[in-house]
Structure formats: structure tokens, C-alpha cells
């Protein structure tokens, strides 16, 4: 049986208490939300905090509030999120992203905050201690070299969160709280393109909520590539959010998931479409442009060349979907299940 | 067919209630007083000499009871007598990352784990062999100091008739190379064992093993103990599929530790370790040269296979022969040459997985037939119907074929799938593919050659009216307990619920060789019929005289024994037992089964014979995205010639489970490895020893499955039954590949058929190259001269004309090893032995 | 170090002293000897360890035992009531949904939560709800059929 190493367990009742615990020894303390990322990592001795601060007891973190858009507590579970009618209606892309995370059980446990802060992944790293010892470890933990690219000065582990690319495309912000105070940063600025230091969050900060701007006029879609209909992390993904004026795109963001150490914004591709009607040709050239910036490495399931090629399809599918095309058959083939945008949310062209 | 009341009825399996209430006790569910826990230290080197093992620090840890190293295990063991090449803990070298080097037994698993990591091993690295090509190329250093030569474990060659002439006389000769990647069983239950000394000092071990009898033998040998002082109890397996049919290191280690400590010692492997136990599907590269006449008859087949065996022998010699055994059982192949070679590499050992050695070459043959049909402009179903092996004959390689329902299987799936409306007619991206297969209903020869029965059954009847049936067979999920009970209930005319089964316990139950090679239903079933019929006879005499009618008028049914001509005249089953018990004393009977002798008398002729064979045909429909290669399987039609279905609920489950596992192999499963850049590291590791990254299909990945059972009872099987556990898996992989061709017009001559490979084939075609993905050529192998055996149709007598006098099997092993106990240095025997995978 | 844990397991109050590093899975199996709950990976990758916590299916291998304080836990041992099998158990046993039976406890628990929330799920919905439970024996079809049959059975 894989077992956890020993650790001190703290269960604060308030954010203030949690921040205080965290501030005591930020370098060796980790936050525990659903635990679906942290606990496997601890069992594999990838992460070995001496203290674990559990957030589950802070009820205020598990609420979703209306306002100018939605304020989603970081402790909201993914099941709670996808069960929320507002999300399903107004942010179909977010719904699709969350609904494709892991498995039903893991979505019952895993939180939005944990999903954003999910450790980056790599098949040289997500292994038991003994396995990693057999390769003399790697840069991300206990070792010196990056086996994915042996001359790389930095770790190239993959950002594997499903919701982050979509939240970034939706222009969401996160609130970070520490004993030093509170700050709000766009999701895009929460991430850094470095497999080891993939978050700009300071070690003493807690993500307390995620604010998604009002959805009026926006459509969104999320397309994920993975081998099976469940369990698997994304190995490439496309998140698209767009605001239309009639058939014309007023504003559009494309963010790629799982092809870099952070969610990757495809701005040039998006620029091709802004101010235009979404024609097949434009969609195609935007998809090609987006795929151009993807940097998949050989550290996930599937071959990297093929993954890169798939980015183009995923972006194209997402764009077709927000245009209002009927993508159900395609969706079913890729996702192995129906992930329909509720009809009311997807205005027909 | 005589009407039956239990047999043939869909029923709740006898162990169904235990399984749905969580009461089935798997090995790791056993908790005993004073129990301590074991963890193994495994090699972090792929190939290295062990210089020192320092256990000092580990032994000091509070709560540690015992630390063991290879020193405690001087005696080797292995499943096949020809390859006793394993030690419970490595002694002088390690052969793969994961090879066990030391063990710690401690108060709890956490402490054992902590201590294991304090053991210091210094290694002197040796060259890493990462691929068969490596092993063929470099003889030194040798991974083992036995085997044919260098790092070639075994190379075999057999020739039945003048194959070159047959190919020369053909109208077309097709020459194709295929590759089948390795994959593993992935039972959800991780291997576990718990050993103890029983109060009188004997050794008891509970283990999740498919083969308690072979574990019994291995323990007797490796621990140098009389087998009579060892009791092996096979706990129900949480899935086996062949992966729990070798004796394993951890079993021997906990046995030894329990003897030393006189306390129960338990071990449960973690998932990574299960990947290291492996014994899964061999990666096989193969070349098929097939001669065909214009009217679609095979004139001859020349088959070469190369198996990546990994680091130990396991069942490998048998696996090698199996890659060449069953082609002739499916199709009429008058002349045949087979050459197979297994090499050692520094990976976890390969062995028997569901279909043992035959799925790889089944894939090659069925895809090649699809190509042949395409070339001859024949429908692939029609082509196959014209070449099915003749029933009730001897094949060119001396396999005795019984009933064959393959034609009906093919017609059924063609019909049900609406094949003629779909094949080559669906729009681009959609396609159908067909493939067939056959499989043994039990290996005809035992692993240790002897004349002893393969399965024994004992029955106890007493005045309670209850019946207890004892058999060494092992319940691994396939439903062997249910088959056993169902047969006894049928013969004695009682309810299955009245029968208690005691199975898989070497102290209590007569030997059954184990749950492998789909042998249990047929062999145990026949033994059970014999035991039950003998019991019926014992009851019949006294009851008949009491009722004053001739015994042959008695009917046993509905928990009664009565006059068939006057059903009101009779007694209850319980009364019948009492009457008989009063008359003859305590009632017990036995039954046993030994398969018929095989017809081939050449070396290698022991692999492939079976009392009878099952047949399957399948049609798979695929959806392929011609732009990306993305593939899904929406529907599968399958028909299986089972002879007779004993419990249709279970039979359907075996068929669907096989389709599932076949699709996993066809589309995603891969036991893959990483070799780090040699200039920086000698590491060779399993790429992803986890359930997340070793991809097995989920409920969302499954197609609709339409199953048909073809039932023509085979007289050799119990109530006419043949096997169902393995055969239905075999056609799935080639049918998928054939369907991909129908969908997008490219060949993927390699398993698994992944989107990347499909796309590469599409790109090759677009670039004007052959529309195919697969190995370019078969490696050069220095084959031994083949044994020359004249096929029976050409007047052969089953002997090889160029084989030195063969030792008689009787002398080779009188079957006493299991009881003989101490035999520290049993010499390796020459002849190959016979074996095979899951039931 | 040991921690004291109080919770309700299968409707019975339970108090147990367990190692502080243990997950709910370990406490159930090792300290409470409720071995009906299985394990196949202990990393959240198979679903064999599923139990209900306050009615929701979760993976007990990724729940800290200390986080189960005060919660209502249901395991396979708690499905049958008054000596009668739950309809799901009956249908699973009758219809071949348990072959080796190792994945069965986790699947039964997951299916129970599904039927409690949605009495008449579609086949697609059942497949989706069970997609976090790997089974290597059945190919899932007989499992899905058993859930459908249980949904129709009187409860
Ligand atoms: C088999 C398996 C499959 C999976 N598949 C997917 C998948 O397909 N897609 C996907 O996106 N994820 C997947 N996951 C990962 C995980 O389940 C989800 O990402 C989940 O949302 C993580 O949330 P959590 O609450 O469980 O995180 P935790 O494990 O509790 O935390 C994750 C990380 O975030 C930190 N953290 C948590 N909360 C906060 C906070 N409020 N402020 C700051 N830091 C915080 C933790 O310290 C930790 O480093 C999978 C996991 C498993 C085991
Ligand atoms: S990308 Fe390189 S450094 Fe980062 S985890 Fe993988 S191997 Fe290690
Ligand atoms: S044991 Fe596999 S998910 Fe918990
Ligand atoms: S019944 Fe064996 S794993 Fe599901």
C-alpha cells in the first residue's frame, strides 16, 4: 500500500488562521484542499511538506457568489461547479473544462483552487521515489538534470490543469491572501512558464476566490485531448472565449492547455479573428497560428509531434463550436461522452 | 441432448453473494494475530553485479524483526523445469529495475518501508540490453549463464513438410512483417500473500495465485522443505489473466520469513511492483510468408517470430512455441515451417497473458489474410470460409482438432453486423474489419511432464443431504467454483446452493494444475462429472432396492431420487444419502481427468495439443478521423463456438470481458520502457508503472457488444463445453486493424493501433510511400536447422526424422518432485515443457 | 503518532485510535477491519477504494483519516439492510456484474450514490457515473445492465 509520509496537520477555521499557519514556515508548509493532487504527490514523495494546512474547514471558501460575474470560492469542488446552473448557462467552456477533469469521484473531491494550483506534470517526475531513484532523479525534485531536454536550464513539466486555460480565456482573476494582505491578479499572471516555479503565488499566499467577469455577450468552449473518456489529464487543450456582435467577433481569446509549463495565450491567432466573421478559412488560419506556439515535450501520453498537430484540430473545433456549428459528433468521438453546451447558451449562427 | 436443470441456465454464480457484500476474502483482506509486514527492496539498476548489500542500518530500526538478502535463498526456482533461473532475492546480480534484492519484515508496513530504504546496495553496472536487437547483436555480457547462446534464451525451428516447395507451387506468396507491442494484465487486485507456521509447525501460505500447485512445488524446492509440510491456499484472485501464474519472489520471501519468525508475515505489493512482476504479453516481431492459390487455398506457411522475453525465463519457452502453435488449428495449412526465438533483455519478465503467445501471431495472420483477400478481390469472410481447418483431424503439426464451429461463427457475425452492406461501402472514416481465432480448451500436457491426472475432484456426501466438493482449481473471477458446483448439482439433481465448494487448498483438495490455459472448465468439469456420477451410482443401488425398481430407472432431479416411470415414487435426496450411507458406510468419491496423449512426438510437439479447441469470429466497426488518426470503436459483433454454455451469464461475461481486454490491447495498452540517453545514464525503466498512465479502457471507452454463442456440444467437454476465457480476445486486435484499413485505406501492422500510427500511415500514403505503418523488415536471426516432421497427410508418424532419440517422458519426471522435498540442485531438464496462460 | 477519530461508519458510531499518516482507506481496512473496501493503486487512479462520505462517492485512498472526523461513511458492508441485499447487490450477483469481484465494492457504492440522486439514469449517464471505476474483468456491460435492472427494481 502506498502510504503518506508523516506530517503535521492543521485545520484552521478561518482564512486568517490559515494564513497565519502558512506564514509560520511557508517553505515547508503546503495547503490541502481536495488533496487529489497533493496526497498522491506526497505518497510518491514528490512533495514532502512537514506541515499540511487543510482548508476544508473554512466554509466561506466553498461558496459561489453572484455579482458582476461570478465569484467562485477556491474550495468549491469541481462537482459543485458543474452542478451550478449559472456556470452551465453562462460559462459553458468552464463547465466543459471542469466536467472533463479526472473522474466523477475526483471531481467530488478536487477543488477549483487546487485545480488552478495543480502541480505541473511529467512522466519522469510523477513516479514513486524508487523509480525516480532509478533515473537518478531530475531537476524538479532531488536531481540535477532535466531528462526531457538534457540541456534545458529549466524544468519543462507540463501545466495540466483543465480549468486554468479556460479561466484565463474568460479573463478571470484570482484573489490571493496572506498575512501581508490581499492582492488580485489576472489568472494569466498567476502562472509562470517554468515547470518548477509554475505559480507566481508567494509561498505564504492562499488563493481564496476566482472571479469570472460577467458573461454577457460571451461564448466559450473547451476542447480537451486525452486518451480515455475519464481519468486522464489533458495532453493538449484549447480554451476559447469570444464576444460577438451579431456574427462578428468583437473580442476573442484563445488559451492552450497542456502544451507548455503554463496556460499559453495564443494572441496572434486571436488577433486574426478579432473584428471578423468566423469563416472556415479564418478559423483554419487561426488554428494553425495557435498550434505554432504550442511546445509539447516528450513527457506526457502520446507522441509530441502528434499532440502539436492535435492542437490545431482542438482550436478549430472550439472555434467552430462557438460559431454555433453542430459539433456533437466530433465532441463525442474525442470526449467519449456528450458534453453539450446547453442550447440556450450557444446562440445559433 | 438430455434436458438439464442447472447446466445451460443463466444463474447467479455460487460466489455471487460473497462478492457483492464485500465478504470474498482476498489475500490482503486476511488479518491475523501477531501479523508482521514485509516490504521488498528492488533494484534501481537495470543490469548490474551486486557488490555489497549493507543491511546494518535497516536492522537497527525500531520495529524491524528481520532483514533478508539473497544469501538466505541459495536455491533457484522457476515455473518451467527448463528455466529455474530465479531466486527469491537476487544473489549476485540484478537483471531489471524492480528485481528484488532484500526484504524487511517489521511491525507495520510503514516501518518496513522506512527500513528498506536504509539498506545500502552497491552495484557494478553492466551493459543495459534494452531491445531484442541489442540482445541479438551482443553476446556479452550474458544476462543469464544458460540459454541457447549469448543473450538468446531459446531459438526453435520446426518444419512440417517441404514448405519451400509449397510456397514455390503457390500462385501468390505474401510476405508480411508485423509487430505486437508488449502489454500487461493489470488485475485490479495487487498481488498479496500471507504466510504462517501452523500450530504443528508446518508452513501455510495464502496467496493470490492462479496456480497453487506450482507454487507448492516451487516452495518445496526453494525452501528445501518436504511438500507434505507445506500448505498453499489460493485466495480468490481479484483478477489474474495469467499474471498470477508464476511462483513469485514475494511468496517465497514471506514463507521463509514466517518460518524464521514463527509469526504470520504479510506482503501486499504496490501497483508499481505489480508492473515489475509482469509476466505479460511478449513483444513479438513476426514475419508471415504464406503461399496462396488463386482460388484462395493456403499451400504453405513459413512463420518467424522474435520475442522480447525480458529478464527471466518464466513460461517463455512455451510462449515461444505458442507463437507458432495454433495457426493450423484455425486454417487448413498443409505445410508449415515455424521458427521462433526468445531473447533476454533487462526488463520485467514476460510470460503468459490471456491467449498466451498466440494473440501476437493471430494478429499477423488475420491481418495478412485481410491483405490477401484484398489482393485476390475476395470478401475476407468468404476467403476464410474456404480455408477453415477440417474438423476431427490432425493438423500438419500434429494437433488433434475436435469440433469446429468457426464457419457458423463467421456467418453469424457477418449476418448480425450487416457486413455485406458495410464492408468497403461505408463513407470515408468509417469501416468494418473481420477476424477469427481458435484457442485451446486446456493445455494437453502438464508443465512437469508426468502421467498424473491434470485435475482431481473429491465429493463428500453425508446424512445432512449436503454435498461438499473439493478441487484444487482456483477461482480467479472466471467462475470456476460455479462450474464445479453447477456440474455436481446437475448430476446429483440437487440445487447448486446445496453444494459447498472447497477449492485451491493443497491440504484439502486434490490437485488441479491451476487456472491457466482455459483448462479448468474442461478438465475440472470432466473430473467433477466422474466424481458425481460415481456418487450417483453409490446412491442408486440402495435406493433402487428400497424402491424395488431397477437402478437404471432412477432419476436424480429436483432434490429427489425417483422412479422415472412413476415420479411420485421416490425419496428426497437427503433420504437417498441416508439409505446409502446406512448400507455402504461413509460416502466419498473421486474423479479425475487426464487429457488424451498428443500425437506429435517431436521436441516442441508438447505445446499446442488440447482436448479440443474453441473458435471465434468478430467484426469490429471503427470511426477514424482521416485528418488526425483519432480512432473510436462504436460496435463489436462476436460469435464464439463454446460447444455448450454451462452458465450463460458467466459465459457472456467472459466474452465481453475478452472483447474489452482485446480492445485495450488493440487501441492503447502498452508495457513501454524508457532508455535514458546512454551517454548520460545506463537507466532503463518502465515508462509508466501506474494505473493512470498504463491505459486501460473505462466504461466510457467501451463499444456496444453483440454476443452470440454457437452451441454444438463437443463430446470431449463436460456437457459438451469448450473454453471461453481467452479465445474471444484474440480476433479483436486484428479486426480493429482490418477495420482501420476499411475506414481510411491504410495498414497499421502493429499493435496497439494508435492515432499517431494511423496518421503516419496516412502521411506515408500522401507522400507516395506505401500506405502503411509497421516494421520494415524482420531481423536476421541465425536459426538452428529445423526439426523435420512429415505431416500426417503425407504419411508422417509424428516423429522428426532428424531428431536424436528422445528421452521418454516417463523417465524425465515421474511427477515426484512435488512430494520429494529436498532437492537443492535439480539439474535443468532438456525438453521444453508445456504451459500456458489464464483461463 | 496516533490520533483519535470519531465518525459514523455504516450508521454505527465508531471511535478509533489510528496512525496520523493514515488515509480513510487504511483506517477502514486495517484499524476497523472493514476489508470490503478494496485498493488497487492508492493514488486515485482506479476507483476500487470508493466509499460514501456524507452520501458522496469519494476515493478513500485520498481522504485523510483525520478529515473524516464527524462524517457519515458508508462502505460496501453497509449496503445490505435488515439481512436483505440492496437491489444493486442483488442485481450485480444475479446478472454477472461481479466476476472477480474486486472492483465490485467501489462500483456498488458509486452506483448507490447515483441511484440515490437519479432514480432513473440513462445508460450514458450510468457509464459516465462509473467512469472512475476501472474493471478489468467484465467489459462493464453487465455492470451497466445490473445498475439499470436495480433502478427498475422496487426499493
Ligand atoms: C487520477 C487523477 C486524474 C486527474 N485528472 C485530472 C484532469 O484530467 N485534469 C485536471 O485538471 N486535474 C486532474 N487531476 C488533478 C486533480 O484531481 C485536480 O486538479 C483537482 O482539481 C485538484 O484539486 P484539489 O483540491 O484536490 O487539490 P489539492 O491536491 O488539495 O491541491 C493541489 C495543489 O494546490 C495547492 N492548493 C490547493 N488549494 C489552494 C489554495 N486555496 N491556495 C493556494 N494553493 C492551493 C496545494 O497546496 C497543492 O499544491 C487528476 C488527479 C488524479 C489523481
Ligand atoms: S521536465 Fe525535466 S526537470 Fe521537469 S519534471 Fe520532467 S524531467 Fe524533471
Ligand atoms: S485505491 Fe485506486 S483510487 Fe483509491
Ligand atoms: S470484476 Fe474483476 S475487476 Fe471488475
Summarize the structure.
The complex is a heterotrimer of chains A (349), B (839) and C (155). Chain A is of the alpha+beta class.
- Run of helices and strands of chain C: EEHEEEHHHH
Low-confidence stretches of chain C: none
Largest sheet of chain C: 5 strands, mixed
Structural class category of chain B: alpha/beta
Overall pLDDT score of chain B: 94
Gyration radius of chain C (Cα, Å) is 15 Å
Bound molecules: flavin-adenine dinucleotide, iron/sulfur cluster, FE2/S2 (inorganic) cluster
DSSP summary, beta strand count of chain B: 32
Please explain how this structure is put together.
The complex is a heterotrimer of chains A (349), B (839) and C (155). Chain A is of the alpha+beta class and 349 residues long. Helices cover 33% and strands 20% of the residues of chain A. Among the domains of chain A are: 59-117 and 158-212, Uridine Diphospho-n-acetylenolpyruvylglucosamine Reductase, domain 3 (2-Layer Sandwich), CATH 3.30.465.10; 218-347, CO dehydrogenase flavoprotein, C-terminal domain (Enolase-like, domain 1). Chain A has 14 helices and twelve strands. In chain A, the strands form three sheets. Chain A has a five-stranded antiparallel β-sheet with strand order 4-5-8-6-7. Chain A is globular, with a radius of gyration of 20 Å. Chain A starts with 7 loop residues before the first strand and ends in a 14-residue tail after the last helix. Mean pLDDT of chain A is 95; it is low at 341-349. Chain B is an alpha/beta fold and 839 residues long. The radius of gyration of chain B is 27 Å and the shape is globular. Chain B starts with 15 loop residues before the first helix and ends in a 19-residue tail after the last helix. Chain C folds into two domains: 2-78, Ubiquitin-like (UB roll), CATH 3.10.20; 87-152, DNA polymerase, domain 1 (Orthogonal Bundle), CATH 1.10.150.120. In chain C, helix 2 packs across helix 5. Chain C starts with a strand and ends with a helix. The model of chain C has no long low-confidence stretch (mean pLDDT 97). The chains are: A alpha+beta (349), B alpha/beta (839), C alpha+beta (155). Chains in contact: A-B, A-C, B-C. Chains B and C meet through helix 1 and helix 18 of B and helix 2, helix 3, helix 4 and helix 5 of C. The site of iron/sulfur cluster (SF4) has 14 residues of chain A, from loops.
